[in-house]
Amino acid sequence: ERQEVRPYNRQRLLVVANRLPVSAVRRGEDSWSLEISAGGLVSALLGVKEFEARWIGWAGVNVPDEVGQKALTKALAEKRCIPVFLDEEIVHQYYNGYCNNILWPLFHYLGLPQEDRLATTRSFQSQFTAYKKANQMFADVVNEHYEEGDVVWCHDYHLMFLPKCLKEYNSKMKVGWFLHTPFPSSEIHRTLPSRSELLRSVLAADLVGFHTYDYARHFVSACTRILGLEGTPEGVEDQGRLTRVAAFPIGIDSERFIRALEVPDVIQHMKELKERFAGRKVMLGVDRLDMIKGIPQKILAFEKFLEENASWRDKVVLLQIAVPTRTDVSEYQKLTSQVHEIVGRINGRFGTLTQVPIHHLDRSLDFYALCALYAVTDVALVTSLRDGMNLVSYEFVACQEAKKGVLILSEFAGAAQSLGAGAILVNPWNITEVAASIGQALNMSAEEREKRHWHNFHHVKTHTAQEWAETFVSELNDTVIEAQLRISK
Ligand code: G6P
């Protein structure tokens, strides 16, 4: 049986995610430019190279006309990407609605919509219907491009319905599903009206993966408690069929970051940044502007630190890069105003005529600018209230070989389980504790910084995105073979 499987490096991989690694911007009737998309999923998937991979997903724009669709399909093909075209109504109901107003907050322990968010969610049923319809549209495109022997790897909370749709098309298809967010406690998941249907659809996959063991455990508990199925150390069993469930912690392409620091433009940029902030320690936050990232909490902790440590006021600066995201969802609009209000207040309070304590940017930086910034940073602050993994912490560590800066990391990020030995772990809700950690980080001895950095750097260098993908795909192949053997017995 084993010989039938092509070696992994020749096996085709169909990676299906709501968002393609590139997003399209229309320049003319039939011309498009492509930009790298934001977010952890994309930055990890970009690190996966040694596969013959095709990407299937949404390019982030509404393209109602055929001319535009044809031109975009062609432009994307050069990047090995295949578009799924979603119209405005579907995007509104499926992406803004069900995915980002319901599943995303729920999976990050922010609960189901209440009060004003409820008003936008009365249409829960129609959003769920749109969610299933969108997943079916993804399945159609996968099915059209599928060739026998391909591995189909579905990603994230947008596509929980996809494994079921794919198996309905072809029960022999090898289907894996991976969640990039936390999977919450089963007590949280059971509040979701469509809880059972989603679990059952995911279970149609052959292999289900999570970033941490805890998320996998929560998922198995949800299946046993809500569906009454049997949880085993291997996964979840339903009438003799096993869905394998396991943890596969993701990583980054660390070499890409390390190499970038040798590029002359990056070196020049680092020099400029050092001059610009001479005499001050640089603290850095890089996040999508999302409520799960705990940006207000981080800034309030920084304020408390300044309040209590007058001598540091002109010796430290916080650079917060907040990449706009999901701007059509009202919660995100409110968060933007809230953050602006807090930053303005603190800068008004502690700023001088010539400098301010917080530089807040509502935009993304290009890769080289980001690497330069990571490299000149003394203390990075990741204060997610919940986060599937958080690869910003990995990227920072990868760029710190020279400086050996300190990482302050939320214990609620998946990364806390891998970088906990080197980072200062904090509860982001405890502003007093985060403020104290800022002081600890700024005053840390060179020996301690070096020791902590070494732990994390070693981890980030050895646990790469490529290795993560290889492990998942080979486990998926093995799972399918084992299932065939079990049936033939
Ligand atoms: C997180 C999710 C990804 C998502 C990314 C950016 O990392 O896990 O699936 O692509 O955020 O969000 P967006 O809504 O812009 O795709």
UniProtKB/TrEMBL annotation:
EC number: 2.4.1.15
Alphabetic keyword roster: Glycosyltransferase, Transferase
UniProt keyword annotation of Ubl conjugation present: no
Superkingdom in the source lineage: Eukaryota
GO biological process assignments: trehalose metabolic process
Lineage: Eukaryota, Viridiplantae, Streptophyta, Embryophyta, Tracheophyta
Record GO terms (molecular function): alpha,alpha-trehalose-phosphate synthase (UDP-forming) activity
Shown residues in whole-protein numbering: 80 to 568 of 967
Family per record: In the C-terminal section; belongs to the trehalose phosphatase family. In the N-terminal section; belongs to the glycosyltransferase 20 family.
Record protein name field: alpha,alpha-trehalose-phosphate synthase (UDP-forming)
